[in-house]
Design goal:
globular; alpha/beta; six-stranded parallel beta sheet
Length: 307
């Protein structure tokens, strides 16, 4: 879901820093003091008790830039929840957005502070089961996807003992990666991901992949046969190819993004002068030097809201 960090191709986990599955599991949870001294894992929206004890609890993790977050990012969670309900023996107990850190250094990447807040605004206003975990975003170095999943494994299964059952017992939660089909394409490309990280992510955790326009998912899966049973492909019954890149382009051109991203996120972008044209002079707070907003937010005249 994210683009290349400054030191590695694609999303991702450079071969120059391989970890074995055992080492990744041992080293996956490192102290949040790397970037957040008073870190508290957000868990208030996790389902406290499973509805169906015959099912296995499932927690969905989406790693990405989210610059900015779009309705498709949120919709993907709902699509996977439906898929799990009707096609698997899993029961979704929660979902997390894990924004990448500033060390990723991708073009168009707003600061971690802004991206965390936009994600929080989006889920707080629209969902009773999606949350934002800032742990990855505040790390001072790029954190590989395998280690991010290990972090959730640590917090959910080791610290909290898994998910609650109706009889008062607790059961281990299956942690899984949620991503678009563009990510699985990079995973199937030789030399992009380390073999150990692929095995750790797809072998231990598994992935739910939402199809996207223009992606040859079948060809990608051909090179990932060892983990085919752990890769679930979800078709978009209603096609949506909105992306953060397109949103940023629209904003630079002062075009409307209403109904493409949540309205409170539009308001936040406007208030903080995010994604404005590079030629516009901004002050330290991200405002135009002359004090005038580039995109007024009045419902009647806002170019952001109504074009």
């Amino acid at each position: 879901m994210t683009g290349p960090p400054s030191t590695a191709p694609a999303h991702i986990d450079p071969i120059s820093k391989p970890d074995s599955p055992d080492n990744a599991a041992m080293n996956g949870y490192h102290s949040p003091s790397n970037g957040l001294k008073n870190y508290t894992f957000p868990d208030r929206k996790i389902k406290k008790v499973m509805e169906d004890p015959a099912r296995t609890p499932l927690l969905l993790i989406a790693c990405g830039s989210f610059s900015p977050i779009t309705y498709l990012h949120l919709r993907m969670f709902e699509m996977v929840a439906d898929y799990a309900k009707f096609n698997t023996e899993y029961e979704v107990i929660g979902g997390y957005l894990s924004p990448v850190s500033d060390a990723y250094k991708k073009a168009g990447l707003a600061s971690a502070e802004h991206r965390i807040r936009m994600c929080e605004i989006a889920v707080d206003q629209t969902s009773n089961w999606l949350m934002v975990d800032p742990w990855e975003a505040v790390q001072t170095e790029y954190t590989r996807t395998a280690l991010v999943l290990d972090h959730f494994e640590h917090e959910i299964n080791k610290i909290r003992g898994g998910a609650g059952m109706p009889d008062g017992s607790r059961r281990p939660v299956q942690i899984a990666l949620l991503a678009g089909a563009d990510l699985i394409e990079t995973m199937s490309t030789p030399g992009v991901w380390s073999a150990s990280d692929l095995d750790h992510i797809l072998g231990r955790y598994g992935a739910y992949i939402v199809e996207r326009t223009g992606t040859d998912i079948d060809a990608a899966l051909e090179n990932l046969k060892p983990w085919k049973d752990n890769i679930h492909v979800i078709k978009q019954l209603i096609q949506n190819d909105v992306s953060s890149t397109k949103i940023r382009l629209f904003l630079r051109k002062e075009m409307s993004v209403q109904y493409l991203i949540p309205s409170p996120v539009i308001q936040y972008i406007d208030d903080h002068g995010l994604y404005e044209d590079d030629q516009i002079r901004l002050d330290a707070n991200g405002k135009k030097v002359n004090g005038q907003k580039k995109h007024p937010v009045s419902p009647r005249n806002s170019s952001l809201l109504h074009g």
